[in-house]
C-alpha cells in the first residue's frame, strides 16, 4: 500500500460508526427522559401541635438595649386563644405582663400582638400594639416583622405583615428592659399560649430594620447582617439534637415536647428533555433536575417528615385541584440514623410520584416552599420554582407571583409576568398593576399583552370592563416617566441617561461661569392619554447676574392597548437661552456642582446657547425612542467669574481653570436621536442594554455659520455574572465630516472617560473608547460573614484613542488603522465603595505616555455616581 493510500481514511466505516454512536446516544437520552422520576422541592419548618416549644438559653447578645427586630414566617392551623411566636422575659423578677422583654403573639381574632416593657415601666406594665383583626387567617403562610426602637429622640413600635406596615405606636425612650429569662419559640412558660402550626426562618436583630429592609428580607434579597444575633432555618441539628444558629453566634435551640422538624415536599413533573443540571443542595433533599422554560410544571404532594430523637416518619398528603384537602397521614417512612456531627434532615421517598400528583393545584404549604425557592441564593433553584407558577391555587397566587414580580432575578420576574394569563380573575387586577409598576420593561410588556387578552372579558369579581383603562391616567403617567421624558434635554444623546425625568421644583447648581445659580424647573408630565404637555425652567446666576430659561410644549398621544398607552407619539416646540455644555456624558450636573463647590474643580466646559427647536418624537413601548428635530442656535463664549470653594484652598485647586473659548456664530441643524433601553433599572442597572445614537447635519441649505456632519454612538451593556457580581461594558465612537466647531471636538482623559490621565488631555474630531469594569457587592456575593458590611470592590480597564483627520471629507479616516497604528491611551485600576458602586474611590494607573511624554503614577478619584 502506498503512502497516499495510508493517508486516505475509510470514510464509509467512519460514517457507519458515527451513525451507531448517534443511535446509542439517542437511546440513552430517550431512556433518561422516559425514566426520569418526578422531582421535588423540599423544605423544613418547626412543627408544633400545642404541646411543645423551642428554648434558647439567655445570652447578652439576645438583648437589644435600644433597638430590636424580630422576624419569622409562620402558618397557624387554627385561630384559638393566644398563640406565641416569640417570647423573652419576665425573669428574674416575674410579674405577669409587667416585666416582659418582648413578646410576639397571634390572637384568635386574627391580629398580631407585639409587647415590650421599657426600662422606665418595670412592674408598671408593658407597652403593646396590635394589627387590625383578621390580618391573619389559618392555613396560610405569613411573614411578620416586629421592630422596637427606643432612642433619646423618640421611640416606636412597628409591625410589618408580608412586608407592609400594619401597625405602629410610640415607645418609651428609656430603652428595653433586659430580662435574663430564656428565649421561647412557640410558647411561654407556665401560662402556655401554645402555638399550633409551623414556624420558619426566625431572625433576631439588635437593630431596627427599616421598612425597605423588611421588604427585602421577606423577598429574600440581601439585607445587611449587621446586628443579626440569631437565625434559625430549622434545616439542621447538631450532634446533640439541638437547632443550629445560622448567625454564627452559637445560640442553640432545644426541641421540647412535641416540637419537631417538619419536612414539606412539593412534587414537580419528570423532565421531558435532557437534564440541564441538578438542583443545588441549598434546598435540602431536593431531587429535582433543572426544569427549563417550556417544561410542564406541576405539583401537588406535600410530604411531612417528623423528626424526634433518632427516628423520622414521613406523612404524605395530596391537595385537591382547587381547594386544599384535609391531610390524611400515611406513614411510609423509615428510621433515619443520626450523623456524628451535624444531622441534615433527609427526605425519604418511597416511589416516583404519579402524573396525577403533579397536575393538581399548589396549596399553602407548597406555595411557601416555592417562596423559599424564589428567595434562594442559587439561580437554578429560583428558576426551577417558576415552572410551577401556572399551578398555583387562587388562594396563593397573589402572594407567590408578587414575590416573583419583585425578584432580583430578571428571568423569575418575566416568568411571573407570563403567568398572568393563567391567574384567577379575582387576582388578575392587583397582579397586573404590580407588573405594570415594574422597572423591567419586559415585565411591563408581558403584563400589557395579558391585559390585551383579558380587556374584553366580562366576569365576576375582578373582570376588566370593556375599554376601561386598568390604570387611571395619573397612574399611567407615573408608570415609567423617565422612559417618556427628556426629549428637550440640552444634549440628550451625550447624557448618561437621556430620558431621565427631571425633578420638579427648586434648581440649584454651582459652576465657574455662573457661580451659584438658583431657579425653578417644570418637567414634562403626561397626565392623560393625550393632550398638551408643557415644560420649562428659569434660573438666575448670582455671580453672573444673568437669567437663563427654557419654555416649550408638545402635543402628545398614547396609543396601543386600551388599558394604558404602550407607545407615545409627540410633536413640540421650545425656545431657550441656556448655559450649556458637551460634557454631560462624563458626570451629572449635581456631581459637577459638588466638585466645584468643595474643591474648585469644574469638569464642564460651558458656553451660552440661545435659540429654539421644532421636534417630533416617537417612543415605542418604553424601549425604543426616536426623535427628529430642527434646531437653530446662537453660540457665545462665557468667561470665568466665580472663584469660591469650601475646601479648595486646602485640598482642591488654587483657582478654577479658565473656561475655554468656543467658535461663536449661528448653527442651524437637523438632528436624529435614537435610544434603545432594556435596562432593568434606570439609575443603578444590573442587566440590560443602553444604546444612544446621534446623527446631525448643519449648514448647507439650512444656512448658518458652520457646515459639518457628525455622528456618535454610545453602547452600554450591564451583565450579571453571579450573585452580587456584574460586568459593565461601554463602547463609544464618534466621527465627523467637515470642520466641526471647537466646542464639538471630542475630548477624553480623566474622570468619566480614560481614568489616570489629565482631564480632557486628548482631543480631535474622531474618537474610539472602551470602558470595562467588573464589580462585586461583597454582601451579596459572599454573604454576611465579612467583618464589614455594605462594601463593594471592582477592577476596571479603560482605553481610548482620539485624533484629527487630514481628509475632513472622509468620516471613516483613521478607524481602519486603529489596531496597528492607533495612539491608544490605556489605564487599569481598582475601586472600592458601597455595595452598588454609586459612591466609591477609583484608583487608576495609566499604561501609556501622557501629553508630556511621560507615564504617570496612580491617581485617586472620588465619585458619587457610576462611571456609566
Structural commentary:
- There is one protein chain.
- The chain is of the alpha+beta class and 868 residues long.
- The chain has 4 domains: 3-35, no CATH class; 36-51 and 259-376, no CATH class; 52-257, Jelly Rolls (Sandwich), CATH 2.60.120; 556-863, membrane protein fhac: a member of the omp85/tpsb transporter family (Porin, Beta Barrel).
- The chain contains 14 helices and 37 strands.
- A hairpin with a 2-residue loop joins strand 17 (301-308) and strand 18.
- The chain is elongated and about 90 Å long.
Primary descriptors:
868 residues, alpha+beta, Jelly Rolls, 4 domains, 10-stranded antiparallel sheet, 14 helices, 37 strands
What is the element layout, followed by pairings?
Elements: H1 3-7, H2 11-35, E1 39-49, E2 52-56, E3 67-76, E4 82-88, E5 102-107, E6 112-116, E7 127-130, E8 142-151, E9 154-161, E10 164-171, E11 183-185, E12 196-205, H3 211-219, E13 228-232, E14 236-238, E15 253-257, E16 260-268, E17 301-308, E18 311-318, E19 342-344, H4 364-374, H5 379-385, H6 394-405, H7 410-418, H8 425-436, H9 441-454, H10 473-477, H11 481-484, E20 505-511, E21 515-522, E22 530-541, E23 546-559, E24 567-581, H12 589-599, E25 606-620, E26 624-637, E27 665-677, E28 688-698, E29 708-722, E30 725-738, E31 746-748, E32 762-764, E33 766-777, H13 778-782, E34 791-803, H14 818-821, E35 825-834, E36 840-846, E37 859-863
Antiparallel strand pairs: 1-12, 1-16, 2-11, 2-15, 3-8, 3-12, 4-5, 4-11, 5-6, 6-7, 8-9, 9-10, 12-13, 14-19, 16-17, 17-18, 20-21, 21-22, 22-23, 23-24, 24-25, 25-26, 26-27, 27-28, 28-29, 29-30, 30-33, 31-32, 33-34, 34-35, 35-36, 36-37
Helix pairs in contact: 4-5, 4-6, 6-7, 6-8, 7-9, 8-9
Amino acid at each position: 500500500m502506498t503512502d497516499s493510500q495510508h493517508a486516505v481514511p475509510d470514510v464509509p466505516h467512519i460514517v457507519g460508526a458515527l451513525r451507531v454512536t448517534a443511535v446509542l446516544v439517542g437511546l440513552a437520552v430517550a431512556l433518561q427522559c422516559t425514566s426520569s422520576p418526578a422531582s421535588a422541592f423540599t423544605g423544613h419548618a418547626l412543627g408544633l401541635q400545642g404541646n411543645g416549644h423551642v428554648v434558647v438559653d439567655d445570652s447578652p447578645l439576645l438583648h437589644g438595649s435600644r433597638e430590636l427586630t424580630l422576624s419569622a414566617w409562620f402558618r397557624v392551623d387554627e385561630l384559638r386563644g393566644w398563640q406565641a411566636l416569640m417570647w423573652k422575659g419576665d425573669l428574674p423578677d416575674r410579674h405577669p405582663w409587667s416585666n416582659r422583654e418582648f413578646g410576639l403573639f397571634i390572637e384568635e381574632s386574627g391580629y398580631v400582638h407585639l409587647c415590650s416593657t421599657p426600662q422606665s415601666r418595670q412592674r408598671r406594665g408593658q407597652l403593646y400594639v396590635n394589627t387590625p383583626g383578621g390580618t391573619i387567617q389559618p392555613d396560610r403562610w405569613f411573614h411578620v416583622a416586629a421592630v422596637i426602637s427606643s432612642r433619646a429622640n423618640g421611640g416606636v413600635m412597628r409591625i410589618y405583615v408580608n412586608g407592609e406596615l400594619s401597625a405602629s405606636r410610640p415607645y418609651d425612650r428609656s430603652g428595653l428592659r433586659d430580662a435574663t429569662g430564656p428565649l421561647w419559640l412557640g410558647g411561654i412558660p407556665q401560662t402556655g399560649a401554645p402555638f399550633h402550626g409551623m414556624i420558619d426562618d426566625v431572625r433576631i436583630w439588635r437593630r431596627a430594620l427599616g421598612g425597605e429592609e423588611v421588604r427585602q428580607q421577606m423577598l429574600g434579597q440581601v439585607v445587611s447582617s449587621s446586628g443579626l444575633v440569631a437565625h434559625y432555618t430549622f434545616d439542621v441539628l447538631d450532634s446533640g439534637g439541638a437547632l443550629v444558629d445560622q448567625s454564627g453566634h452559637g445560640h442553640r435551640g432545644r426541641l421540647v415536647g412535641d416540637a419537631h422538624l417538619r419536612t414539606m415536599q412539593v412534587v414537580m413533573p419528570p423532565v421531558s428533555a435532557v437534564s440541564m443540571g441538578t438542583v443545588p443542595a441549598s434546598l435540602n433533599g431536593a431531587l429535582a433536575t433543572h426544569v427549563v422554560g417550556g417544561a410542564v410544571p406541576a405539583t401537588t404532594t406535600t410530604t411531612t417528615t417528623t423528626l424526634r430523637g433518632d427516628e423520622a416518619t414521613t406523612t404524605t398528603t395530596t391537595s385537591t385541584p382547587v381547594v386544599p384537602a384535609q391531610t390524611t397521614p400515611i406513614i411510609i417512612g423509615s428510621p433515619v440514623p443520626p450523623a456524628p456531627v451535624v444531622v441534615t434532615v433527609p427526605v425519604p421517598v418511597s416511589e416516583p410520584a404519579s402524573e396525577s400528583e403533579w397536575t393538581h393545584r399548589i396549596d399553602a404549604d407548597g406555595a411557601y416552599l416555592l417562596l423559599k425557592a424564589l428567595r434562594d441564593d442559587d439561580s437554578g433553584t429560583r428558576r426551577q420554582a417558576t415552572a410551577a407558577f401556572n399551578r398555583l391555587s387562587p388562594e396563593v397566587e397573589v402572594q407567590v407571583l408578587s414575590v416573583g414580580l419583585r425578584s432580583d432575578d430578571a428571568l423569575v420576574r418575566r416568568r411571573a409576568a407570563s403567568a398572568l394569563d393563567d391567574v384567577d380573575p379575582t387576582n388578575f387586577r392587583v397582579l397586573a398593576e404590580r407588573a405594570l409598576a415594574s422597572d423591567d420593561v419586559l415585565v411591563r410588556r408581558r403584563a400589557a399583552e395579558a391585559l390585551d387578552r383579558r380587556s374584553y372579558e366580562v366576569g365576576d369579581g375582578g373582570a376588566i370592563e370593556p375599554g376601561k383603562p386598568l390604570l387611571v391616567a395619573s397612574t399611567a403617567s407615573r408608570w415609567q416617566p423617565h422612559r417618556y421624558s427628556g426629549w428637550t434635554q440640552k444634549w440628550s444623546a451625550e447624557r448618561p441617561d437621556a430620558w431621565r425625568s427631571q425633578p420638579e421644583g427648586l434648581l440649584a447648581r454651582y459652576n465657574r461661569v455662573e457661580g451659584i445659580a438658583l431657579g425653578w424647573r417644570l418637567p414634562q408630565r403626561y397626565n392623560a392619554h393625550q393632550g398638551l404637555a408643557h415644560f420649562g425652567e428659569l434660573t438666575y446666576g448670582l455671580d453672573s447676574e444673568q437669567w437663563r430659561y427654557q419654555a416649550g410644549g408638545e402635543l402628545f398621544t398614547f396609543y396601543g392597548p386600551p388599558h394604558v398607552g404602550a407607545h407615545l407619539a409627540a410633536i413640540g416646540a421650545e425656545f431657550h437661552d441656556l448655559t450649556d455644555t458637551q460634557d454631560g456624558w462624563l458626570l451629572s450636573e449635581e456631581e459637577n456642582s459638588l466638585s466645584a463647590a468643595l474643591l474648585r474643580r469644574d469638569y464642564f466646559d460651558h458656553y451660552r446657547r440661545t435659540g429654539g427647536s421644532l421636534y417630533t418624537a416617537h417612543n415605542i413601548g418604553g424601549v425604543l425612542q426616536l426623535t427628529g428635530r430642527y434646531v437653530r442656535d446662537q453660540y457665545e463664549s462665557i468667561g470665568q467669574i466665580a472663584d469660591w470653594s469650601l475646601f479648595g484652598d486646602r485640598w482642591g485647586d488654587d483657582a478654577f481653570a479658565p473656561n475655554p473659548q468656543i467658535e461663536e456664530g449661528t448653527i442651524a441643524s437637523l438632528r436624529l436621536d435614537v435610544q434603545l433601553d432594556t435596562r432593568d433599572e434606570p439609575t443603578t442597572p444590573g442587566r440590560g442594554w443602553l444604546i444612544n445614537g446621534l446623527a446631525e447635519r448643519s449648514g448647507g441649505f439650512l444656512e448658518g455659520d458652520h457646515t459639518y456632519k457628525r455622528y456618535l454612538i454610545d453602547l452600554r451593556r450591564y451583565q450579571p455574572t453571579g450573585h452580587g457580581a456584574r460586568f459593565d461594558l461601554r463602547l463609544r465612537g464618534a466621527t465627523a465630516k467637515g470642520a466641526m466647531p471647537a466646542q464639538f471636538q471630542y475630548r477624553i482623559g480623566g474622570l468619566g472617560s480614560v481614568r489616570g490621565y489629565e482631564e480632557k488631555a486628548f482631543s480631535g474630531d474622531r474618537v474610539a473608547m472602551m470602558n470595562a469594569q467588573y464589580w462585586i457587592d461583597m454582601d451579596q456575593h459572599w454573604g454576611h460573614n465579612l467583618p464589614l458590611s455594605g462594601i463593594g470592590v471592582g477592577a476596571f480597564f479603560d482605553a481610548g484613542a482620539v485624533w484629527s483627520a487630514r481628509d475632513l471629507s472622509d468620516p471613516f479616516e483613521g478607524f481602519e488603522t486603529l489596531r496597528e497604528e492607533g495612539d491608544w491611551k490605556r489605564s487599569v485600576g481598582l475601586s472600592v465603595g458601597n455595595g452598588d458602586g454609586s459612591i466609591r474611590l477609583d484608583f487608576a494607573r495609566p499604561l501609556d505616555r501622557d501629553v508630556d511624554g511621560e507615564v504617570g503614577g496612580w491617581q485617586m478619584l472620588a465619585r458619587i455616581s457610576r462611571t456609566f
